[in-house]
Amino acid sequence: MRILVCNDDGYFSPGIAALAEAMRGFGEVTVVAPEADRSGASNSLTLDRPLYVRKASSGFFYVNGTPTDCVHVAVTGFLDLRPDLVVSGINNGQNVAEDTLYSGTVAAAMEGFLLGIPAVAFSLADRGFDHLDTAVHVAQRVVSGLLRRPFADNKLLNVNIPSVALGDLAGFTVCRLGRRHVSQPVVRVASPRGEPMFWVGAPGGIRDAGPGTDFYALANRQVSITPLRVDLADAEGLGSVTQWLDDLR
Ligand code: MN
Fold first, then answer.
1. pLDDT digits (tens, 9 = 90+) for 102-141
2. Distance 41 CA to ligand 1 centre (A)
3. Angle at the Cα of 143 (from 174 to 32), degrees rounded to 5?
4. 124 CA → ligand 1 middle, Å
5. Is residue 151 part of a domain?
6. For 35-155, where are the E strands, in sequence order?
């Protein structure tokens, strides 16, 4: 069993160190992660320059690229042997609802999935890693479950862990994604030379946190597990757009 570990917070993050350590009992672990914090990188690939893979004193490999670059380079070129599982995280903060579209943590797992490898993204709610041990326990439970009962078809799982002590955890639940309101606007700041600059603002507030959502699970101290798909096509929209096109004629 070979496990590739990646993240988007960078190879120096306590979250990836904990995840790598948690995976050692399951097999041979290789860490390939971005050299900088690339949170929010989504599925971006670096196409305008070559990428290096260097080894840190921790034994972790780091890449001057995105989370997607890391998994792509590792699986298709750098590693001698193909991993059997890709795990990403443990992210510093939750990745729920529309966060999943921007998340580099999810993207790293998704890249493994796109390359035909089962993949899981792990994120710990509430930034700051207060309950990293809880997340480690959850990651081990999920991975041991995958080994014991693998899915017939590959799955991409998005797992969020509430930031609570292990004894306060209220179990695991399979969830749909919640919904956020539109993002907060950018914040305009002046550069020292007076030119306008912009900080990207906060994510939108909660719009749908009803029962069955990842938001709801976390609020109720439950681990959320959401299987994700890559196909963005709007199956329900096919009919109305077909009708619209017919009406134009
Ligand atoms: Mn991150």
1. 999 999 999 999 999 999 999 999 999 999 999 999 999 9
2. 9
3. 115
4. 10
5. yes
6. 53-55, 61-63, 85-92, 119-124
Peptide bond into 90 cis (omega under 30): yes
CA 156 to ligand 1 center in whole angstroms: 18
From ligand 1's centre to the CA of 240, what distance in Å? 37
Interatomic CA distance for residues 82 and 76, integer angstroms? 8
What residues flank ion ligand 1 with Cβ within 5 A? 8-9, 39, 91
**Would residue 217 count as lying in a domain?**
yes
Gap from CA of 8 to ligand 1 centroid (Å): 5
pLDDT tens-place string over residues 177-218:
999 999 999 999 999 999 999 999 999 999 999 999 999 999
Q: How many domains does the chain have?
A: 1
Contact between 92 and 127 (Cβ < 8 Å) = yes
Distance 228 CA to ligand 1 centre (A): 18
CA 87 to ligand 1 center in whole angstroms:
14
Q: CA–CA separation, 206 vs 218, rounded Å?
A: 13
Residue 59 counted as domain residue: yes
Domain extent at residue 35:
2-179+206-248
